[in-house]
Amino acid sequence: ICSDANFLGAKYHVLSRNKPLAKGAFQGFGRRIQVTVAEPLAELSQKSQKVVGGWLLVCSGMAVGSIILGGVTRLTKSGLSMVHWHPFAEFPPSGHKQWEQEFLKYQEYPEYKEYNQAMTLSEFKRIWYIEYLHRMWGRTIGAVFYTGAAWLWWRGWLSRRAKGHVAVLGVGLAFQGALGWFMVRSGLHDQPHVSQYRLAAHLGTALLWYSLSLWSAMSHLAYQAQVPFQTFSPRMYRGVHGVLGLVFVTAMSGALVAGLQAGLVYNSFPKMADRWVPSDILALEPKLRNFTENPTTVQFDHRILGESVVLMVTGLWLWGRKQPLPPRARKALHCLLAAAWLQATLGVSTLLTYVPVSLASSHQAGAVTLLSVALWLAHELKLLRRIPK
């Protein structure tokens, strides 16, 4: 069979050897599917595709750095040290007098008054520079992204579909910066900590931006070597997307844990103290508030979601390893299992050791790693042309 198809803006030439399967082959694995991988037509040169893909991969990698820096900023309680936001001109104080003035500004806000009255100027500089690094890294991402987008657009190296993705990413990046300041402002008024809702929104937007940029990068960079005639279950594809959704929800639950410091309320595992279900899990009224405002409930939910991810990934691996997947898809499946168990181990270790910065940062990085591997596996399966028998 020869046909043309579009995939993320590039035209493809689909080749398939349509041979009959033996009756009863691969029974129990769902509807049988013939798969090949698409080969690109020369709408855009291979060089331009690699350049676009490389640029998007750099941007997505920088986004990972920003997510990890954001976690360190929160864990070191540095996020409220800079009490003003200047989108385009923000420089460190240049001398002792300016540092004292900056410190005096910080002293006007609740975090200093309630927690940090014994803080010295050198200690303030430390948390200020951590927040400053996070902000500057975000601006660097913006410079790399918008400059690269303008140049590639001008050169005509972006397909119509890619232009749509780049436009969405551009709007999303600007929105993410504004959302970050909106989050910080929530901790500069009555409460000396940021809203867990705004923290979750800020992290969620970052993960969505990263996911789209990584997916687009893989779509430009994936080599088009034809896959031998095979079958795989369409349920496999749906299962991977189920894992993706569950990983994202679990990450959002983790943001609530971080915002409420819920990792410090029950530092035992597998039980919470001496109970499987703690007695104060529904202590707030109305009951729905407990799911986003009660640290006990939020930690309990995060445990359940994390355990569900491990079980779902393990089940997907046990099932998927019996199917004749292409080598790269099989490797991604194995990596997904390893990432899920590593992330669970990091989560439990972080809990049992009372949330040290190093382990908690590793746990957040583990969440991004798990999401990345799930995206990789989903993309490998997406490349396969599924032709129902």
Short structural summary:
With 389 residues, the chain is mainly alpha-helical. Helices cover 63% and strands 7% of the residues.
Structure description:
The protein is mainly alpha-helical. The chain folds into two domains: 39-223, no CATH class; 234-389, no CATH class. It is built from eleven helices and six strands. The two termini are 13 Å apart.
Give structural attributes.
3-stranded antiparallel β-sheet, flat, 389 residues, 11 helices, mainly alpha
Mean pLDDT: 87
Per the principal axes of the C-alpha atoms, what is the gross shape? flat
Radius of gyration, in angstroms, nearest whole number: 24 Å
Assign a percent range to the helix content. 55-70%
Uncertain regions spanning at least 5 consecutive residues: 1-42, 224-229
The main pleated sheet reads as:
3 strands, antiparallel
Sheet/helix structural class? mainly alpha
Total number of helical segments? 11
Overall tally of domains: 2
Order of helices and strands: EEEEHHHHHHEHHHHHE
The portion of residues forming beta strands comes to 5-15%
Give the tally of β-strands.
6
Distance between the termini: 13 Å
The strand order across the widest sheet is 1-2-4
